[in-house]
Structure formats: structure tokens, C-alpha cells
Amino acid sequence: MDKIIFGDNQFFGVNHKSEYTASKQNKKFQTANDIYNTLEYVNNIGIKSFMFSTHSQLEPVFEKIKNNSEFDDFKLYPCMPYAHKYANAMLELGPFEMIKKFIPGNKIISGLKGAGSLITANPVPLMKLLVDSEMKLLKGLNVQGIFLLNIVTDLLLGLEMYEMLYEFSNYCEKKYNVRAGFFTMNHVKLHDVLVNKIGLNNPIIVSSINKIGFRMNPSKKEVEKILSKNDSYNIAMSFLASGALKPKEASDYIESIKGVSSVLFGASSNEHIKETKEILDSILKTSNWADKALLEI
Amino acid sequence: MKKVALIGIGKMGISHLAIANQTPGIEVKAICDTSKPLLRAIEKNTKFIGYTDYKKMLTELTLDGVMILVPNAYHFELAKYCIERGIHVFIEKPFTLSYKNSASLVDLANKHQVMGQVGYVNRYNLIFREVKKLLNQNIIGDISSYKNSMIGGVVLKENKGWRNDYKKGGGCLYDYGPHCFDLATYFFGDNVKVQSSILKKVFSTNVDDIVNVTLLHNNSIVGSNYINWSDNTVRKASNNIEIIGKEGKILANKQEFKVFLNEDNIKLNLTKGWNEIYVTDQNTDIFYYLRGEEFSLQLIEFSNMLNGKIDKSISSLESASITDRIIEESKKLNKEII
Known about the structure:
The complex is a heterodimer.
Chain A: E1 4-6, H1 19-28, H2 32-44, E2 49-53, H3 59-66, E3 75-80, H4 83-102, H5 107-120, H6 124-136, E4 145-148, H7 150-158, H8 162-176, E5 179-183, H9 187-197, E6 204-208, H10 220-227, E7 233-237, H11 247-256, E8 260-265, H12 270-284
Parallel strand pairs in A: 1-8, 2-3, 3-4, 4-5, 5-6, 6-7, 7-8
Helix pairs in contact in A: 2-3, 5-6, 6-8, 11-12
Chain B: E1 2-7, H1 11-22, E2 26-32, H2 36-45, E3 49-51, H3 54-60, E4 65-68, H4 75-84, E5 88-91, H5 99-111, E6 116-118, H6 126-136, E7 143-151, H7 172-175, H8 177-188, E8 192-200, E9 210-217, E10 221-228, E11 238-245, E12 248-252, E13 256-261, E14 273-278, H9 293-306, H10 317-332
Parallel strand pairs in B: 1-2, 1-4, 2-3, 4-5, 5-6, 7-10
Antiparallel strand pairs in B: 7-11, 8-9, 9-10, 11-12, 12-13, 13-14
Helix pairs in contact in B: 4-5, 5-10, 8-10
């Protein structure tokens, strides 16, 4: 897995620090072309990984990526399920059209899979169905990992439905031959569950890791302690704390702690993307940045 | 560990269940919902015991607190039943659908020495909480007025569902109104009169989509409250408030606030002119995060209440009943929706 991964928050008006900034960024990315142009720039300067929630607005962007050979070595990491998409589709298309759009393959079979899930009260088939339907939209693209968004990871964590986390990971590996990853806002709790309770080997965890401890739960100190164990592949998100930190001080912090394997960041201007990448590149060579290659499945 | 149960496992219910299950000081003993398939799924996949009948649940279990998360129309009946049995309650907002009912529950709770909390989550938001602290310190001097708005894109075309029916809890006034008015009473107090109210339709045919209400607090603070659920320019519901004082001004939303001061405030490290403060400047540490620190903080307070660490919630039944009164009076001032 690459050390530097590009994220998608700026494309969809998400900024955890400021509503004003979010709205400003949203205005910048009105069309699929706006998003595509930024990804083209990202690819050109050598950031070869893109992590995104499976937002409908990205579908035309991926069509363009598919048709441009410059993107052949560009790796995609979908994060699912993007719940708003289903809610909006239900409103716009109605239930039948929505099912047609999202459920892959034979409608009768997938219908049974889902119905079976309700009858037996077993959520696993439903989870598989959702993963399949998201993956259907990404067919023919270079998907290298599948990530569970924090709202779902943390809900399962809160309800202690640990087996579902295991099933998700297992399904991604068996069916799609890629690693699963988990977004979380509860790094310490999740790490304990994945490593100690369900026994995943070197699980991929994406969580807020930044100099000011923003959304590092339950505390910066405890997260740092777990990171230093080095028994999970840790991807730092919010390392710029949504713009509260300058790239240099943010990178210096990542360099100073043990256990961060990759950094996921987003920015809306080419200038900021380049600046951040160059600063991250300069710390890549240092020893603390966990030198860990992902295990092959 | 205080024992609690949750009644009503809808969208809010499931998120409260996850948070309550992680909250120190309380232990979730059971859940109750009328949907049998849902209960079966929860019982099969989690450790929680399920009931379909809340009366049976309350008879069989000894509980310290109950979280009432059912549709709004049933809040009164369930809260009354719990309070009469001396069980502390957390009720999702709004408190009840009538001021009379809410006021009677306030009295009943006092009589039975029961504590209550209503799910007005903005009161636990890190930014709004900080603004409240500054207002308590009189940082912008005497407040003359405020502009309080809540906008979002809920109804963006004509619809015939429950949102277009007052009896089913539809209308922007009943949906967004509670959060907006509660924020006003949180900042400016419960001694409040509804001076004017205009309800307007945009896409809906039977209910309001835009609400304009003028409130007067303590006979001195004038508040314009603007609520619109037919605005598609925001990604999610957005609260913005502008507070005008004699010595400055505050602009705030859930993630950030700006303070304009006429003079330096050395004690609070704020300078003359604009000061910008973001959620990233706050301590965000939380035992468990699901959908914002405020959702976890409000259940910490419920736990503190059950464990006798505090004797009143900052989102008490009293304050929530005033929000119900504002909504009721705002509706009454409109014979028809424009």
C-alpha cells in the first residue's frame, strides 16, 4: 500500500473544522470534470492511490479514468456504504428502480439473498449484498482494497457486533481478493477488537492522527501508545486536522511518532496538494514512519 | 452501574443503543420495540434482551433509567408511565406534542422526584457550549438581539407523505423548530414570549416549509428565528446564530464561531476585532464516538444524573417544555399557512 493516499472530502463539501470552508470547497467541485481534473493532477505528480466514499457523483469520473491509460497504475480504495446515496436514490428513483440500480446480477437471486437475511435475522448476507452492489459500480477499475466507513464500523463496535467486522474482512479477501480496512473514530477500542478479540492479522485501521489530538479517541496519548505496538497497519486521516495545522508541522508530528504506515489527505487546490505531497515525501525516508509492507492475501 | 432500557429502536434508537452501551456508569439491560423481526435480529446478533411490551419490561426488570425513543406522539404516554414508577427518563426531542402535556410531566416528575433529560443535542455541542460559557461571562456586554436560523434540504418538491401532515408530525415548524427554538432558550433563557409568527408553504400543500418567529426573552432580548427545510444549498441541516451585544458580536455554527470585540479581553485571550475559534481548538476527547461528540456527551450527562453526580440536566424537562410552548404558540398565531 502506498504511503501517500489522496482522499475525497474536499469534493463533497466535507470539512470537519469549518462549515464556511466546506461550502467554499463544494463550490469548486461542481461537475465531474472538476473532480477529474484534480485527480488527473494528483496522478501526474505521483500520488497513485485514491480513497473515496462511493458517492454517485464519482461514477462519471470513474468512466473517464477507465478510458485514460495514464491511470492504469492508479489504485482505488472504495469506502462503503455511503448511506446518503441509498437514501437519496430511494427518494429520487423509488424503491424498484433503486433496487435495479444497485443490486447486481440476477434480481431474483439477489432478492432471495437479502430476503433470507431478514428471515433468519442474519445480517451477513445483507452485508455481502451491499458490498457486491458497491463493487458492481466499480467493475473494471483497479480496486486494491475495500474500506468500511466509520459510521458503520463504530456502530458495530458500539453494539459489540464484532463478528460482522470479521465477516466483512473475510468476504473482501475471499470474494475480491483484496484487503479490507476499517475507518474509525475509536482507534483504541477498534484495535483491541480487531487484534485481540477477533484475531485479524495486521488489520488496516484508518483514524484521526494529528499533532493537536483532534478526534483521537479516547485521547491522543492512548492512541499513540497503541500505534507504537505496530501490530496494525495504521493510516492517518485528518493529519492536517481539517486545515488547523500547516503541512510542515503536521508532517513533523507524523514523523515523530511510531506506527503510522500511510497518510490519507485531501486538499482542494493543486498548490496545496503538491506542497503536502512534497513535505510528506521528505519524511518518507525517516525511520519512525512504519516500514511495513502489507501482507499478501 | 445503573441499569437502563431503551424503548423504540429506530434510526435514533440504534445510535443511542450503541452509545449507551459504551457509556461509563450505565448498563443497557434491555430494549423494547414493536417490530418483531427487528427484535429477533437484535437478540440474535447482540447481547441485549428484547421486549415488545414496555409495561411487561418495566414489570420484569428493575431499572434506574429508561430512554424513550419512540415516535413523538407516544412520548407523553411512555414518559408518564415511567415517571409514575420513579424511573428517570431520557426522552428524544421534542418532549411531547403539547405544552399542557409537557407541563404536566414536569409537575409529575417533581412530585415523584424523578429526573428527566430531553435529547436537545445542540446543548452538548462543543462550539455552542463554548459560546454559552462566553455569554455567561458577559463577554459581548448586554445582548440586544439575535438572528437564529436553521436550514436544510428535507422537502425539495411536493410530497404527499407524513411530512405534509401536521397530525403525523409533519411541517418544518415541528421538525426543525424544536432544535432551533431550544438553541434560543439555551442561550437567552426560558422567560420567553412569542411576539410574532409567520408560517409559509413552498413545496408542501398542507404544512409549512418556512417559519419566521420573533421571540422576546426577559422582556429585553429580541430574537429573529428563521427556519427553512426547503433549502438545498446545504449538505446537511445547518444552525447559524448571530448574537449582537453592546460590546461585540458572536457568529456561531456547530463547527466554529467568530467573536468581534470592541476591546481586548486579556483574561480570555481574545483580541479587539474578530477572533475565530474552531472545533479543532476544543478538546474533542471522548470515550466513544459515533456521530459527533455531543451525542456521547449527552449520554454521559444521563449517566451522571442516574449516578447522582448531578441533580439536573442542562436539557431538563422544564426547558424542553418551554420549547414545546414556543412551537404551540407559533402555530396558533397562524390561522392559515401562507
